[in-house]
Specification:
Radius of gyration: 29 Å
Structural class: alpha+beta
Oligomer: single chain
Distance between the termini: 61 Å
Largest sheet: 7 strands, mixed
Shape: globular
Helix content: 25-40%
Strand content: 15-25%
Strand order of the largest sheet: 3-5-1-12-9-10-11
Length: about 900
């Protein structure tokens, strides 16, 4: 037992290294794919190569005869038992949704959908046999383009009669939270109308998905690399008709999720069915290609915004018309993700009128669902772009426009036009600190100098002043939005006889540092050493109750449940302490891990009371021999972290390459439990948001084939592609929970994308560039500059024509001095390392070698040439006419 006097005075706020890192970093842990059980079988999925097709026939004869194969299952084999995968968020009463089978029966609706499953004695045997399954498809028309899908030109699911799944609307006038937006638009002195594209992204977690099911005990035990073991257990029971008490789900250490493992997957259901059918443990682990192809995707929206304002810069109304791509099916929360953004388009600004409409549309692509931020990054990008557009229209500093319209710190709590009550915030303090660290005024002066000198490398400054709603709760609000679950969280605190403490949490970590943060909270609350606290999680037999981890809810909801459980321990211990000390309860004070009689030296430690309760030799009458306590916490409000992010980008106008010069963010996440955890979450989030701005995009061809199906083409950043960020915090505690904490897990992702895009556009806007669709690859930036220059030259020619032939000739010469825009950039035969100046997979439009077809409009890093197995590499775009060179190399 540790002596009381050795205990730390405070843990909350200490920069503790993560206690879980030792086993994670050294590999002394158990990932799902590490699990090996006696007699275990392995699964391999046969997936459709077509985006939309009828299954005419499946011949499994050769596969069944293959060595090591135990069974081959088709959709017809499991049609009566597989049910339909759940959608827990029907956003409207008339929402349309097709059945979502784990294994397709008659028709496939996206490339990558499972049509058969091979069960074999080894993973290699299963993969080999899967190649022998012969499927006869009758290809059907597929709809891939979001605009075409919204127009019902081709139907993703003909039986529905439309591609529109649901239309969800919020109107501030009807809700009583604001005025009529159409009146604001009619009376506007300044009207900004823009359309933005949120490209499709793929959650690229470090650990691929994996599932093991053991049917040999009294329960079905499933190990899964999931974010949601409790939700998965319930949904498996409901989908497959198995008593919930007979299902145990374990999420061991999980290597990242980013929302991509917030799902009930076809593969989890299939592995369960295979184990039940064979009576043996079964395992499935995805390949990286399967992850990119068939794990759910994120984002993918068309955004049309109309902003009304007065000439002095005061915003008067905001209208949002959203079209969101559901993909082929509705996943667990697919339909609700864009609705989360509905409450954040107004952001930190005092819009008096607001109208939001979202149209959810089916396409023949992999379904979308939650991806880090889930609706909030999309909303923040759009409104922060619009605030920059307003500043440009008014000819004023974009920070000044924001400051004029944001909620001031003395106005909190503040009810927004979307009906949410922001409890606390100080946007002025965060912005002032960010400007100071960034050197905002100095960079603006440097920018002006570069423009005046005609420097080919221009400097742009991007701004994002954001807030977000996180801690997905409270339950009554989620119920009003037709969400199928609540927003509460559960925790238990157990006092062991030895004085150690066990904390059981319903939150299930996948890299956030729960074990460290929860230990710090409990150490402070109970006055025990940090090292004496053990945190248990992720196993529904140990943590029997919980709603898991997503939406930056762990600390503000799960952590608060831990606080309340710890406080209940003290409440239960107080009568016993009074009994032992022969004092009145009201005369006791608890500090430093012990109860002390006020004004005396008489005291007893909590750990001593734990042993006394275990012995139960001398307890007060009626007291049960336990100090253990449970708590279930349902928040009264969301939490609202905020921050100011400033980005400086250098853009080479001759090549389109963008280089990050500086990035500063000052975030306010309320009380900080552990600064190291906060900084880690911010850093990771920043890189993901920056990657959306500059590099990442899931691209499909016209037939619905994913052509960015590997990390050769889906370009993730590396450490070499980023810079050292400058991070800092202001602290405005939340008023709605005991700790004063706010969420942090998604902040960096939400804020960084618009900051980077605004910076790149700010660098080239004076050249006539108004917008560039993400990702802002060098090819896109270069083309935008060339097109703007050409448009400017054409305008000059038109004007000069009125002034006479000599002026016309001069204008033409000036406009073509740099040469005509190239039909395709030059290519090099070697693949270059992409550094920070270009980012991973610097992209440009290129023509394929003769006989090959280009799979998409722009090609990251290299082109795999169909038929030749060769690779070409492009040089940076040039402003003079290039010579097209294609080098063919041996594959390998």
């Amino acid at each position: 037992m540790t002596a009381v006097e050795d205990r730390p005075t405070t843990e909350v706020g200490a920069a503790r290294k993560r206690k879980e890192d030792r086993r994670l970093v050294t590999g002394r842990t158990r990932w799902t794919d590490n699990i090996v059980l006696p007699g275990m079988l392995h699964l391999s999925m046969v997936r459709s190569p077509f985006a939309h097709a009828r299954i005419a026939a499946i011949d499994t004869t050769a596969a069944e005869a293959s060595d090591g194969v135990v069974a081959v299952l088709t959709g017809r084999d499991v049609a009566d038992v597989q049910g339909s995968l759940p959608n827990a968020w029907p956003v409207t009463p008339d929402q349309k949704a097709p059945p979502h089978p784990a294994v397709a029966v008659d028709r496939v609706a996206f490339a990558g959908e499972i049509v058969a499953v091979v069960v074999a004695r080894s993973a290699a045997a299963a993969r080999d046999a899967a190649e022998l399954v012969d499927v006869d498809y009758e290809e059907l028309p597929a709809v891939v383009d979001l605009r075409e899908a919204a127009a019902d030109a081709v139907l993703a699911h003909p039986e529905l009669g439309t591609n529109v799944s649901a239309v969800w609307t919020f109107d501030s006038a009807a809700a009583g939270t604001g005025t009529d937006v159409e009146d604001a638009i009619r009376d506007a002195e300044v009207l900004i109308e823009r359309e933005f594209r949120q490209q499709r992204l793929i959650p690229s977690y470090m650990e691929p998905r994996s599932t093991v099911v053991d049917p040999t005990g009294e329960q079905f035990t499933m190990w899964s690399a999931t974010q949601v073991p409790h939700i998965l257990r319930l949904m498996l029971a409901l989908t497959l008709g198995v008593p919930e008490s007979k299902v145990r789900v374990i999420a061991p250490d999980v290597g990242g999720g980013f929302g991509g493992k917030l799902q009930v997957t076809p593969e989890e259901v299939i592995t369960f069915l295979a184990a039940r059918r064979t009576g043996k443990p079964c395992k499935w682990t995805e390949t990286r290609s399967e992850s990119l192809l068939s794990g759910h995707h994120g984002r993918d929206q068309l955004q049309k915004l109309t902003l009304a304002a007065r000439r002095d810069g005061t915003v008067t109304g905001l209208k949002v018309e959203l079209t969101a791509d559901m993909g082929a099916y509705l996943g667990l929360v697919t339909s609700g993700v864009p609705i989360l953004g509905a409450f954040m388009f107004n952001a930190i600004y005092k819009f008096p009128a607001y109208h939001f409409t979202c149209t959810n549309v089916f396409t023949n692509k992999t379904w979308t669902d939650a991806y880090r931020g889930a609706g909030r990054p999309e909303a923040t990008f759009a409104i922060e772009r619009m605030m920059d557009e307003l500043a440009v229209e008014l000819g004023t500093d974009p920070l000044a426009v924001r400051e004029k319209n944001w909620i001031r710190h003395e106005e909190f709590p503040f009810t927004t036009v979307a009906g949410l009550e922001y409890d606390s915030g100080n946007y002025e303090a965060a912005t002032a600190r960010a400007k100071e660290l960034f050197g905002y005024d100095e960079l603006r002066r440097e920018q002006a100098g570069r423009r005046a000198s005609g420097d080919p490398v221009q400097l742009g400054i991007g701004i994002s002043t954001f807030t977000e709603m996180c801690g997905l709760a409270p339950s009554r609000v989620l119920g009003a939005l037709s969400y199928g679950a609540g927003g509460w969280e559960h925790a238990s605190v157990r006092m062991l006889p030895s004085g150690k403490v066990e904390v059981v949490t319903g939150s299930s970590p996948h890299g956030q540092g729960h074990e460290t943060a929860w230990s710090q909270i409990v150490a402070d609350r109970l006055g025990v050493p940090f090292e004496d606290v053990e945190v248990l999680h992720g196993d529904t037999q140990i943590s029997h109750k919980g709603l898991d981890t997503y939406g930056s809810r762990s600390l503000v909801v799960g952590g608060q449940a831990v606080v309340r459980a710890a406080d209940k321990v003290l409440e239960k211990a107080r009568p016993l302490a009074a009994h032992v000390l022969e004092a009145a309860e009201e005369d006791l004070e608890f500090t430093g891990g012990k109860f002390q009689v006020r004004g005396t030296d008489a005291s007893i430690g909590l750990t001593d009371l734990a042993l006394a309760v275990f012995a139960a030799h001398d307890l007060p009458d009626g007291m049960e021999p336990s100090l253990d306590a449970d708590a279930t916490y349902d928040p009264v409000n969301f939490s609202y972290p905020h921050g100011t992010h400033l980005c400086a980008m250098e853009v080479d106008t001759e090549t389109g390459q963008s280089k990050m010069r500086s990035y500063v963010c000052v975030d306010d996440v309320g009380t900080i439990v552990n600064p190291l955890l906060v900084e880690g979450q911010i850093h990771g989030g920043l890189v993901q948001g920056i990657a959306q701005a500059l590099w990442e995009e899931a691209v499909y061809d016209e037939q619905g084939t994913l052509v960015t199906g590997s990390f050769v083409d889906y370009t993730l950043p590396t450490t070499a592609d980023t810079i050292s960020f400058v991070t800092d915090n202001t602290v405005t505690p939340s008023t709605t929970n005991d700790l004063g904490t706010k969420g942090v897990g998604e902040a960096g992702t939400i804020a960084s994308t618009p900051a980077v895009v605004n910076a790149v556009l700010d660098a080239v806007r004076h050249l006539g560039v108004r917008d560039i669709t993400m990702p802002l690859t060098p090819a896109k930036v270069w083309r935008a500059v060339q097109d703007a220059t050409a448009d400017g030259a054409a305008s000059a020619v038109g004007k000069a024509a009125a002034d006479g032939p000599d002026a016309t000739v001069d204008a033409i010469v000036a406009g073509t001095a740099a040469g005509p825009p190239p039909s395709a950039p030059a290519a090099r035969s070697t693949r270059a390392r992409c550094g920070p100046s270009s980012g991973p997979g610097s992209t440009t439009a290129t023509s394929p070698p003769p006989g090959a077809r280009s799979s998409h409009v722009f090609v990251p890093s290299s082109v795999i040439t169909p038929g030749l197995g060769a690779r070409t590499q492009e040089a940076r775009p040039l402003s003079r006419p290039p010579v097209q060179v294609v080098a063919v190399m041996a594959s390998g």
